[in-house]
Write a structure and sequence with these properties.
The protein is of the alpha+beta class. The chain has one domain: Heat Shock Protein 90. The protein is built from two helices and four strands, in the order ββαββα. A four-stranded antiparallel beta sheet has the order 1-2-4-3. β1 and β2 form a beta hairpin.
Amino acid sequence: AGESVSSKNGEVRITAELRNNNLLTITVSDNGPGIPEEEKPFIFDPFHSSKGYKGTGLGLAVAKKIVEEHKGIIEVKNNRGGGAQFIIYLPQTNDIQKEISDEKLEKH
């Protein structure tokens, strides 16, 4: 999102919301040019880059892999007024709760 917002008035917004006590939704949006429709099917593919020589094409592929390793989903949409929106859905699992509890016990 940072590279897509190059003007002085560029804005990146990150929000997080816990839904139904079991689904974390993280949204990263900007007011840049958005994602061309023809790019969307390939945007999470490794080594795919719309920036030519300026990128490796690994950033979004790595992000998707991390989200999937946590049993989540990532999707991309264009905002109606311009810009792109990446939405990450991460389920809250008992494994995560146990891991957090165990970590708290170890620290205290």
